[in-house]
Design goal:
By secondary structure, this protein is mainly β. Helices cover about 0% and strands about 55% of the residues. The chain has no helices and eleven strands. The strands form two sheets. Strands 2, 4, 5, 6, 9, 10 and 11 form a seven-stranded mixed beta sheet that branches. Strand 9 and strand 10 form a beta hairpin. The model has no long low-confidence stretch (mean pLDDT about 95).
Amino acid sequence: VQLQASGGGLVQAGGSLRLSCVASGIIFNINTMGWYRQAPGKQRDLVARITSVGMTDYVDSVKGRFTISRDNGENTVYLQMNNLKPEDTAVYYCTAGPPYAMKWGQGTQVTVSS
């Protein structure tokens, strides 16, 4: 299983980024896909997830600002991040599968300057 995340970078507060994660080695369209993040000195937490049928779930701090979506034809999950805040600074990880058998990508750094 490979989960290749991209799209991170440095952006000013209020700006936008779109993260992408291309999956291989899994049957993409039956898997719940997710994005987690880990800030320096903090634990890794769920940001958003999307089920195989498109149901979504977000952590409260990103509701209304972030949107998770998926393209089953391209085996890709996206995280559109708008109105970014300095507290969104973290390494963002793409995941596939349920919590008891979750696969992780390598992470992409998002840095939001104030």
